[in-house]
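User: Could you check the structure of this?
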Amino acid sequence: MSTENKALVQRWFDEVWNQGRVESIDELLAPDGIVHGLGESEMRGAAAFKPFHAAYREAFPDVRIQLDDMVAEGDRVAFRWTATASHHGDGLGFAATHRNVQFQGMGIIRVRNGKLVEGWNTFDQLGMLQQLGIVQMPGPAPAG
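Assistant: Sure, the predicted structure tokens are below.
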């Protein structure tokens, strides 16, 4: 089962993110699936996840997510990924910067009956926003 679950997670990233196949969200995410960590609140089901997906794909139409590691045990798959993209859209609520970004993330997905039923996500959103020039970290205080 671990092999099948890892293949499902790989398919999710290949189809949903790298290819932008919206229809794969309905195929791979359980109707009662819950997604944590990608917004202010959890997303339940495909209808709640699709606006998040659309906003990121609009902002980063060429996003490519490479799975760097996957470990599966029982009904869960843990993974680490690296994303590369060019910011060409306004989907994140600010104007396109046309800058390239590279950022990392991790997650755990729980699988039931060949569908994603729950996912916990974290990614370096601050690093992404810094690369885009949206967030500036404060510099050292001036001497004197």
